[in-house]
Amino acid sequence: MAIGTHEETGKKIDGLPELQQRIQRLFRTRKNNLVIRRAYGSNLPKLVDKKTVPGFRLDVCAEAAETLANPANEIHDEFKLHRTQLDINNETGAIDMVLVGEYLVDGEIVRLEGITL
Description:
The structure is a single chain. This protein has one domain (about 15-115): Nuclear Transport Factor 2, Chain: A (Roll). Helix content is about 30%, strand content about 30%. The protein is built from three helices and five strands, in the order E-E-H-H-H-E-E-E. The chain has helices at about 15-30, 45-50, 55-70; strands at about 5, 10-15, 80-90, 95-105, 110-115. A hairpin with a 6-residue loop joins strand 1 (about 5) and strand 2 (about 10-15). The two termini are about 25 Å apart. The mean pLDDT is about 90. It comes from Endozoicomonas gorgoniicola.
């Protein structure tokens, strides 16, 4: 289990809140954006910038699964994705994601809500 710093309050966080914050940061970081860690990140920012077309939900869910499974992102040994759910607000364009999966630290099935793309 990792320990981190909350990106807004600066307080120490661990467990699921820390994992959720890392996943949120990972999904917002474009691949090849970090000089030393080119493989870190996801292609989700590119997908979100495009128009919502048929197959968009599938593309976003598939990219989320690939991103979480990529060893370079250092999430695969803490969280195993089982299901994703997208909520797209057509008026504002906001995309919220819910991830359901196994938290490998304790073997519990967890639901991570409020991941905004």
